[in-house]
Design a protein that fits this description.
By secondary structure, the protein is mainly alpha-helical. It is built from 16 helices and three strands.
């Protein structure tokens, strides 16, 4: 009977194209879009910022500032509306070397420029000013010659200020984007199993299947457990497909190194626990939903809200401290942070402290879901 119940659930799930789209197409699309969004390098971002520099008087320092900002990609098209405007005060060059620092640049930006892009522009302005001061100092000290082409002078100054040559990076920037983005959207997709579970329970309530089951030689607990087992197998298959695509196909699209499929093996235990958490949590919500509209609003809405506060949509390390604290209470955060740690640290051992909260949460949700399902069937019998 339990085997027949599992086969029935598989037929229902794979006959519903909407459910399959929610479980597979939507998470793959999210992974692709968000990985592309995070894969941009700083120099690519500066090219989108149009810079306008106004000055009271023309001098070497002002020319050098323009040149160094152009060198890192800032556009300076006077025919376009400026994203960032730098107004240089009179005596700008002399003020750069004054004993007491005073404001000699007024920085303003368009309201349409995001806080992140504004911060990026400020950082590059600070670096450019440091290069300008060093450039003028080297000219005065005779270490640079006025007869040298400006490009060669700038190259020598940049070489002296580039301290990254002293640092070796273990991973490429695009590789880091893949490691952070893929686990987040994989977990987000897995938790959408709540919608197929909800739709199945609603259909069985409306067509009388749940009432007929009470006449079968199987308990409500066994029937519901078989149903959840079927959804668990679907969820685990979904997670495997998403992980393989995420770590082998998507990196090729963003020019990042691909992982060997065998490197995904250490993540399988955590993936199994994550799927159990998603299915039992989804079952708790599904057992209380009474219509397809509620399934979309409550089931889908809960997932989106959890993703928002768990650091899936916005990186946790740029959130305010209060939201970082709230995120620690979310099962989505436990799952995605565990997967990230496995790949970022190159660890091949699943930490018990990572899996234990998910296991405890799954057990609590599983017991609660069974109890709520029993109540649901009793209410149907009373009607």
């Amino acid at each position: 009977m339990i085997k027949a119940s599992i086969i029935k659930e598989f037929r229902l799930i794979f006959s519903d194209l909407h459910s399959l789209a929610v479980l597979f197409l939507m998470p793959i699309s999210f992974m692709l879009i968000m990985t592309f969004a995070l894969s941009n390098k700083a120099e690519d971002l500066t090219k989108s910022i149009n810079l306008n520099i106004t000055q009271q008087d023309s001098n070497l320092a002002e020319s050098l500032l323009k040149a160094y900002l152009s060198d890192v990609g800032f556009s300076q098209d006077i025919n376009q509306q400026a994203d960032v405007t730098l107004e240089l005060a009179s005596g700008f060059e002399n003020a750069l070397f004054a004993d007491q620092a005073n404001s000699v640049i007024t920085f303003s930006h368009a309201t349409s420029l995001s806080p992140q892009m504004t911060s990026l522009a400020k950082q590059h302005l600070q670096i450019a000013l440091a290069k300008v001061k060093l450039h003028i100092y080297l000219l005065d000290a005779g270490q640079l010659s006025d007869s040298m082409p400006l490009a060669e002078q700038m190259s020598r100054v940049s070489e002296q200020t580039n301290q990254l040559k002293l640092v070796s990076f273990k991973r490429e920037e695009n590789y880091q984007a893949v490691q952070h983005s893929i686990p987040s959207w994989l977990v987000f997709g897995v938790f959408f199993i709540v919608l197929p579970i909800s739709i199945t329970l609603i259909s069985e309530s409306q067509n009388g299947t749940l009432l007929r089951v009470t006449t079968f030689p199987i308990s409500n607990t066994a029937y519901f457990s078989a149903k959840l087992l079927a959804f668990y197998l679907v969820s685990f298959t979904q997670a495997l497909v998403l992980m393989i695509i995420g770590f082998t196909v998507i990196p090729k699209l963003v020019d990042a190194p691909s992982l060997n499929v065998l490197q995904l093996v250490p993540a399988l235990p955590l993936l199994a626990v994550t799927c159990a958490t998603a299915v039992t949590f989804g079952a708790v919500i599904a057992s209380q939903i009474k219509s397809h509209e509620q399934a979309i609003v409550i089931g889908g809405g809960t997932n989106i809200l959890l993703a928002a506060i768990s650091g899936l949509m916005v990186p946790l390390d740029i959130m305010p401290k209060a939201m970082q604290t709230i995120a620690q209470l979310s099962p989505m955060h436990w799952a995605q942070s565990g997967l990230k740690n496995l790949f970022i640290s190159d660890s091949d051992v699943l930490s018990l402290t990572t899996a234990l909260p998910l296991i405890i949460f799954s057990v609590i949700c599983g017991v609660l879901a069974l109890w709520l399902f029993e109540l649901k069937v009793r209410k149907l019998q009373w009607k």
